[in-house]
């Protein structure tokens, strides 16, 4: 019986592992930079030529840079007379986005207020109509209604009592 060697199998496994590692490293090839509007951009392609070198935060295959150190040392005389430099914008904050969010919230609030006013007007209108109908019922006059066939019917006492109860419920909920 011939002996089989494990070496070819191990070589194949090693080759497959190497190919997988090479593909995984290309997936990690990520560029990171800050664009002209101050937003942080992540991409698998290099930034455009208009992006200054200092705004490139990460290159593929390179370790992440340490915190930026100012290139010019601050002297006490220069810092006393000069105005303080503007605070750097946080990379996660977008002023336009914040403004749009505030506008959307204000519009939503106005819409809710308008809907509440519309409902209040409808309730007041229902209340007024119910009060007038109740006054008519309480007057004792003979009232006629139209049935499903379109014929006029005079309201009897039972129907008058149920209608009075319905109007009282409306007035309780809307007035």
Compute the number of strand runs.
Answer: 5
What portion of residues is helical?
40-55%
The residue ranges in which pLDDT falls below 50 over 5 or more consecutive positions are: 73-79
**Strands of the largest sheet, in order across it?**
2-1-3
Q: What's the overall average pLDDT, rounded?
A: 78
How does the major sheet shape up? 3 strands, antiparallel
Which geometry do the CA atoms define?
elongated
Structural class designation: mainly alpha
CA-based gyration radius: 40 Å
Q: Helix segment count?
A: 4
The SSE string, one letter per element, is: HEEEHHEEH
Alpha-carbon distance between the termini?
Answer: 101 Å
Note the beta-strand portion: 5-15%
What's the structural blueprint in terms of helices and strands?
Elements: H1 7-27, E1 31-34, E2 40-43, E3 56-58, H2 76-81, H3 95-138, E4 144-146, E5 152-154, H4 157-174
Antiparallel strand pairs: 1-2, 1-3, 4-5
Helix pairs in contact: 3-4
Keywords: Membrane, Signal, Transmembrane
Protein name: Putative transmembrane protein
Organism: Hydrogenophaga intermedia
